[in-house]
Amino acid sequence: MHLQLVPWLTAATLCVTLTGICSSSTLSTVSDADRIVSLPGQPKVCFSQYAGYITVHKKQQRDLFYYFAEAEADPRSKPLVLWLNGGPGCSSVGIGAFSEHGPFKPSGDVLRKNDYSWNKEANMLYLESPAGVGFSYSVNNSYYISVDDKMTAKDNLAFLRNWFKKFPEYKNRDLFITGESYAGHYVPQLAKLIVQSKLFNLKGIAIGNPLLEYNTDFNSRAEFLWSHGLISDATYKSFNTICNFSQIIRQRWSDALTPGCSHVLSEALREISNFVDGYDVTLDVCLSTVSSQSAVLNKPQETEKIDVCVPEETVKYLNRKEVQEALHARLVGISRWTTCSSVLKYEMQNLETPTVPILGELVKSGIHVLVYSGDQDAAIPFIGTRTIVNKLAKQLGLNTTVPYSVWFEERQVAGWTQVYGDKLSYATIRGASHEAPFSQPERSLVLFSSFLGGGPLPEGLLSESAVRNNHINITWS
Ligand SMILES: *[C@@H]1O[C@H](CO)[C@@H](O)[C@H](O)[C@H]1NC(C)=O
Ligand SMILES: *[C@@H]1O[C@H](CO)[C@@H](O)[C@H](O)[C@H]1NC(C)=O
Ligand SMILES: *[C@@H]1O[C@H](CO)[C@@H](O)[C@H](O)[C@H]1NC(C)=O
Ligand SMILES: *[C@@H]1O[C@H](CO)[C@@H](O)[C@H](O)[C@H]1NC(C)=O
């Protein structure tokens, strides 16, 4: 067994908490330059953080930025998890790490400890990808003119190869790749390259509210909006007879909405209003972005557990000079860090490429696949995702091993799940947004932890005994 408390550890890797002394596990000197001494305003913690660049193309000077938070305790025994946000063109550091499941969330001038951070369960690696996103860049900016899924997957693989050179102790660790939204493309595509190249120890992937199949995903928006009371019967009928969402999105890329589609869309937007977040139709919105006057009139409740303004706070935080210095980050070819890229031109045709077949290939090669949905998201609603996973299971000839049923966090229903065979699972997270851990951090952490444990949600979470005392007899009459 490795002795952790060795006297030659430097002060930076030693700290004292209420529970005693702890130490960092990563002693590699290659990664030392990327070690974060401390982030401005952060509380004292006992795990190591790293941030910096990994070159994916030397000649073109294309460097990808990462932030790595080792597990809070015993990092050597925990898996490595790569997290990717979508967009295409949005930042995994800004959204994933600082707004969803990283160790800290910005609040004013300081960082608050996130009680449900995913580095309680794993060593978390956040990558800003492709180049042009966040702090990642290409000095040859012709690269930005047209980036596609293939280029992104290739660079992500090159990133991992080179990252492991910096962190060799993680090379043979169990690896999981996770992400959400457009990462429904990035994650399976990268996983496929890893399986093909037989590199690394890939165990599973998890994707939340993922774009998997253009028509099914986007056209399920109308039913979701209608069934949640956000649009009228008449507008729902228009989506089904005059113009559907897949047409609207396609036309919007080419800046050419037909009058019919334009009419349906504007009716829907009027009904939904500007005061509802499409990424979580029940969550309050951050009022400073709606109007500063209403923020004064309607102070957020003191008891509100979710700070809905965290994404805005993150933009401010990551644009502070001293924060960028602490992160070893550079602004190359841009003057500000933005949540989603202002320079990247992504090949939007790629949105229409279905990635479900890749999920099938991964399941067949023994990789665990978890698809989950925050069930309050109107952007990529669970309605489409559930259909897609069901259809995939049928195509693969997988029998249901856990029938559609509730799962629990503490004594409340945290969502529904269905498991097909022993490698493919679907789960909803009840009351969660497009960025599920943003609005349901506890439930998301339970799901994440059970996913890393392998297989379906643990029996305990499904067992009747867990809620026997909490059982309600609803007659539905
Ligand atoms: C810059 O990148 C473009 C597109 O990738 C490439 O065609 C060009 O040769 C590169 N320029 C230089 C100077 O390397
Ligand atoms: C959306 O509309 C197009 C054009 O009318 C149609 O071809 C397509 O089948 C529709 N999709 C769905 C899922 O209704
Ligand atoms: C699935 O269930 C059917 C019917 O019970 C059974 O015949 C078949 O062998 C099962 N397939 C697998 C892969 O277990
Ligand atoms: C619910 O119904 C079951 C079966 O009818 C009964 O045994 C149980 O006591 C009921 N529980 C409550 C809380 O009413």
From TrEMBL:
<keyword id="KW-1015">Disulfide bond</keyword>
<dbReference type="GO" id="GO:0006508">
    <property type="term" value="P:proteolysis"/>
</dbReference>
<dbReference type="InterPro" id="IPR018202">
    <property type="entry name" value="Ser_caboxypep_ser_AS"/>
</dbReference>
<feature type="signal peptide">
    <location>
        <begin position="1"/>
        <end position="24"/>
    </location>
</feature>
<dbReference type="Pfam" id="PF00450">
    <property type="entry name" value="Peptidase_S10"/>
</dbReference>
<dbReference type="GO" id="GO:0005576">
    <property type="term" value="C:extracellular region"/>
</dbReference>
<protein>
    <recommendedName>
        <fullName>Carboxypeptidase</fullName>
        <ecNumber>3.4.16.-</ecNumber>
    </recommendedName>
</protein>
<comment type="similarity">
    <text>Belongs to the peptidase S10 family.</text>
</comment>
<dbReference type="GO" id="GO:0005773">
    <property type="term" value="C:vacuole"/>
</dbReference>
<dbReference type="InterPro" id="IPR001563">
    <property type="entry name" value="Peptidase_S10"/>
</dbReference>
<keyword id="KW-0732">Signal</keyword>
<keyword id="KW-0964">Secreted</keyword>
<keyword id="KW-0378">Hydrolase</keyword>
<dbReference type="InterPro" id="IPR033124">
    <property type="entry name" value="Ser_caboxypep_his_AS"/>
</dbReference>
<keyword id="KW-0121">Carboxypeptidase</keyword>
<dbReference type="InterPro" id="IPR029058">
    <property type="entry name" value="AB_hydrolase_fold"/>
</dbReference>
<keyword id="KW-0325">Glycoprotein</keyword>
<comment type="function">
    <text>Probable carboxypeptidase.</text>
</comment>
<keyword id="KW-0645">Protease</keyword>
<dbReference type="GO" id="GO:0004185">
    <property type="term" value="F:serine-type carboxypeptidase activity"/>
</dbReference>
